[in-house]
Design a protein that fits this description.
Helix content is about 60%, strand content about 0%. With about 90 residues, the chain is an all-alpha fold. Helix 3 runs antiparallel to helix 4 (about 70-80).
Length: about 90
């Protein structure tokens, strides 16, 4: 998992934009998951950095998977430090 996280960081935020499915916030959720698994604060910091970048990306959709609703979920997850992926992880 750590190697996957490093690959995400090396690639950087996606130029595609936001999207839990396959966008910057989806990759950020992977970094949040790494924090939950390792307890290493650097992963939380990196997830939050991705969140700050995602805020600046243009959002033209209003859906959970491809748009601002998913981004809102991700931003909230970064604030409350919740690694659970919406609708997939058991709450």
């Amino acid at each position: 998992m750590v190697k996957a996280g490093e690959a995400i960081l090396q690639a950087g935020p996606l130029t595609k934009g936001v999207g839990i499915c396959h966008g910057t916030d989806g990759n950020g959720y992977a970094l949040l998951k790494l924090y939950s698994r390792t307890g290493d604060l650097k992963w939380l910091s990196r997830a939050r950095a991705f969140a700050m970048h995602a805020i600046e990306q243009n959002v033209n959709e209003h859906s959970l998977w491809e748009g601002d609703l998913g981004l809102a979920c991700y931003l909230h997850a970064c604030l409350v430090v919740d690694h659970r992926f919406p609708l997939l992880d058991v709450y």
